[in-house]
Amino acid sequence: MKQSIRIASGQGFWGDLLSAPLAQVSKGQVDYLMLDYLAEVTMSILQKQKLKNPALGYAKDLISTVEEVLPYLMERNIVMITNGGGVNPEAARDAVFEVARKLGIKGVKVGIVTGDNILPRMDELIAEGNEMRNMEDGTPIAEVKDKLLSANVYLGAAGVVEALKQGANIILTGRVTDTGLTLAPMIHEFGWSMEDWDKIAAGTVAGHINECGAQASGGNFLGDWKSLPDMANIGFPIIQAYPDGSFIVTKHEGTGGAVTRETVSEQLLYEIGNPEEYITPDCVADFSSIQLKDEGNNRVRVFGIKGKPATPFYKVSASYADGYVAFSSLTYSAPEALVRAQHGDKILRQRLEQLGLQFDEIRTEFVGMNACHGPLAKAIEPNEVMMRIGVRSRDYKSVERFGKEIAPLILTGPPGVTGFAGGRPKPSEVVAYFPALLKKETVNYKVVVEEV
Q1: What beta strand segments (E) does 280-414 contain?
Q2: Strand locations in 163-237, DSSP E?
Q3: Less packed terminus of the chain by CB within 10 Å, N or C?
């Protein structure tokens, strides 16, 4: 058993800093590189891409990243783990193999973890009595079944652990939890039982810190953010984990940003509900038990974490088509910029009503005045205000006609207007989120490891 392992975060979402993965494997010693690409809406985007082209459906940035980091992975014995396989891990694997052939690198073992995609099984699952009711309003998934774009369960770390046991250098998964990508190496290297709830919870907390990239090392920091050094070259976090479940959050020397008790604490509080019950498929972690010690020099020790048994359910992340939206904006200049923008909004809304258009929602923001703080915004006299208006409807024609009513405001509304560019806004499809629960025994993951 190793005395410690270092698990580097390389991406916090699809579209994160492209230079981060290479920096993590080249600027210092790490054992694992974790890349988190998936958010709830990402799965529906990837599913649409796969429907258009069966060879797609994974995070396309992943392949250029593999081309950069693969020589380091093989030379330094670093294992890369990512959920960037999206809805098509098989195609992602084939693309990775192509990169290996292009670089002339042999002996690359790529593992894929599948089984999370339950969309093809939806009729079967519903027929078996799995209602999968919406966790927010109780609607059974059958009511939106015909409009579903994607449906995936959040798998845990077990499939990744199996791929590690089979010697994979690169592991590509579908919808595995963000936390599971960091937890899996700790289970594998330290021989933890999947029912040692305190240790599994510790690995889950480590995964939560790692999952959002540089948010744990100074990015998006609400504290004394002006004091953070060299943010242009911010270092992404690294978890230095130990067999007893404790770990240190750090980053490579010479990189920007900072790892402090405050930056780590902010990330710990990100996207959690009840801190005593952080529920994952692997365990229920008690965030109220977390203890932090700032050891200085960009090192924060995390320890004392308690966990509870996992629930019998997987969370389902489904998405479905729910109408159309369109957005547009006009900018009004001073004097009376806000008054002009408000009057323009009033005129537009009246015209839309007179046309008899059907909208489920019309929303206007006055950027520069209240777009961030809404009714809490303080009254000021801004130099300019952008009126940004959006509409949502299940009626395509109403949304399309809205787009034709923006440009006329330039010459038929308040003065001092600019900022109309790019032509008429076009309707785009609304993707609605549908969270539900599904019994674990109805889902089986599959692991395949192949070598090029």
Answers
A1: 284-286, 291-294, 300-303, 306-308, 313-333, 361-367, 384-393
A2: 170-173
A3: N
